[in-house]
Amino acid sequence: MKKYFIILALSILVTPSYSQGADEATLLNAMHSISSHDLLGYVKTMCDDKYEGRLTGTKDYQECAEWLAGRFSDWGLSPAGDDGGWFQWYKIPYTLVFPDCGLTLHIPLKKGAEILKHYRYITEYVPGSTSGNGEVTGEVVYAGYGITAPELNYDDYKDINVKGKIILIEREAPVSPAAGAEKFNPWYEYSFHQSKLANAVKHGAVGMIYNYGPLANPNNAYYENFVYVHIGDTVVRDIFEGTGFNHRDIVSEIDSTLKPHSFNTKKVMTIRMSTQHFPDGMGSNVIGMIRGTDPVLKDETIIIGAHLDHLGKCYDIMPGANDNASAVAVMMGVARALAVNKIPLKRSVMFIAFGSEEQAVVGSKAYIEHPVMPLDKSILLNMDGVGIGNSIAASAGKDFPVLWSFIEDANNAYVHRPLRTSSFPNLGRPRLDAARFLSAGVPSLSFSTYGSVNYYHLPLDNVDIIKPEIMEDLSHLLFMAVVRMADSFGPLR
User: pTM of this prediction?
Assistant: First the structure.
């Protein structure tokens, strides 16, 4: 008998236990009120051309944010933004990109003649989403990673002159986060797009060809007289052709020796950009709340987060169906099921649609700096790209096993999808809203899905690639997991 009580006591310590809330039948009815039809409808609304790609700072983004706030209000959530409203405001400069853009290689012939090779939009180049306006023609200088780091005895600009010229550079740094914190951290600040662009301007370059995709990305700085584009293998190959160097070999050499290998390619290119910059833009997070009922536990908050923004127009509309209308739709499904069905919850549940994730993850940074609920009593379930495939993944489950146990239990009991997790050291520059929360000490899981075609930061990320069934299953999983978390007697952190 004594042995039995010891085993029972141990099981209580390791197994989440729940307070009495809604009965199982009520929960199942509420869970099944989340339908794939509704979720796909939400995605279609957010991807409508009238919102023009939801670039934070624009009126189009804010109109979409107001639509979302209206749904929260209709369902009975409480506003938790600034001054009792739905929105948490912050400054965010933004840039609009227009169609008169291009990238051209000048191929010299005899007697001063030349052939112009115009690169194809999307497949071979994409305009820089924060580029200055104008046209420049110049020699192309390969400048490695575009980094000047005296304390690391590393300078891609040493012994080259880029004044008045166009640079070709790589993204990231010669040491990656995979090398571990001790080796990567000294390179951390230099891996940022903004750092590379500022360094190019400092050295007098007038343009940049960034080996990044080609895909669109508004996460960069703006300099009025500096133009840039994102390119891929075709342009890199043409620039390296005839130089006597192999691009892949040079990058490998830089990475292995941590010594620059910059040189003048003797190629001439023209970058043409048509943009307009708005330095005084204002962005917002949309925040809704279901207050907990327990006198003590109500001060603890489960945040369900997803970024509402996407890339705007570059220069075509970037719909952002998977990234990240899908995740906002799942968040909406869970919010509606909890609020409309009046599911009693001991802990508070907050729903945040972040702005400016695509613009240096500024929206979640704004929340971290001005939290609605104490960060030391919050956990985050974040979603980013959850509308494709047939399988579910979440980062950091191995780092937060208590949180992950609720996710596994809900999947095993109600959804039965392939489910995987990992550890997430969060060393690189922040790419997810969850990264901001983790850096602030908030336990965070970030969900994605996989298993079918995806088009990242391209116009083809539209409703045609969305698999509504995976969104429905993830909504069901999170609904049940959040209810169990909210009513658990044990600590979540």
Answer: 0.94
